[in-house]
Amino acid sequence: MFWLQREITLPPMSRGFHLITTQIRRAVPELERLQVGLLHVFLKHTSASLSINENADPDVPRDLERSLNALVSEEFPYHHTIEGPDDMPAHVKCSLVGCELTVPVRQGQLCLGTWQGIYLCEHRNRAQSRRLVLTLWGTTEPAAD
């Protein structure tokens, strides 16, 4: 059984959905050694989130951002406002979308669909760098049928 855990830091990104599949793959080159396994991605923040979604059409991340903004208004009468008008809505969006993902690994590759990618969903107007914990586990032996 193979285990690896690594923390990476992504630079600050603008508000919106940002494809980070390549950064994740680069951070765990050991992925290529696994025949069968799982990659768990955990975001150590409460004002951003992670999503697997279409990575082919640039309209998709823009529409996802617009949809979340329509669902979670900055005009709602929040009590937690000390960190600015975008902070509490960012926490709500994180709760709706989530801060972790698990992706199957097969023959050294993430088992994402043809049009799927991993996105960092930045919900703040002035974002900070974001930290991810990547936990890779599995076997280097071929799977039994």
Instruction: Output the helix-strand order.
Output: EEHEEHHEEEE
Helix content: 10-25%
Structural class: alpha+beta
- The whole-angstrom Rg is 17 Å
The main β sheet shows up as: 5 strands, antiparallel
**CATH topology annotation:** Jelly Rolls
Strand-residue fraction? 35-45%
Q: Estimate nothing, just give the exact number of structural domains.
A: 1
Outline the secondary-structure elements:
Layout: E1 2-10, E2 16-19, H1 21-27, E3 36-43, E4 48-54, H2 59-71, H3 87-97, E5 100-106, E6 109-110, E7 116-122, E8 130-139
Antiparallel strand pairs: 1-8, 2-7, 3-5, 3-8, 4-7, 5-6
Describe this structure in words.
A hairpin with a 2-residue loop joins β5 (100-106) and β6. This protein has 3 helices and 8 strands; from the N terminus they run ββαββααββββ. The mean pLDDT is 96. The protein has one domain (2-139): Jelly Rolls. Helix content is 21%, strand content 37%. The chain has a 5-stranded antiparallel β-sheet, with helices on one face. Strands 2-7-4 form a 3-stranded antiparallel β-sheet. The protein is an alpha+beta fold and 145 residues long. The longest helix is centred in the middle third of the chain and has 13 residues, at 59-71. The protein has helices at residues 21-27, 59-71, 87-97; strands at 2-10, 16-19, 36-43, 48-54, 100-106, 109-110, 116-122, 130-139.
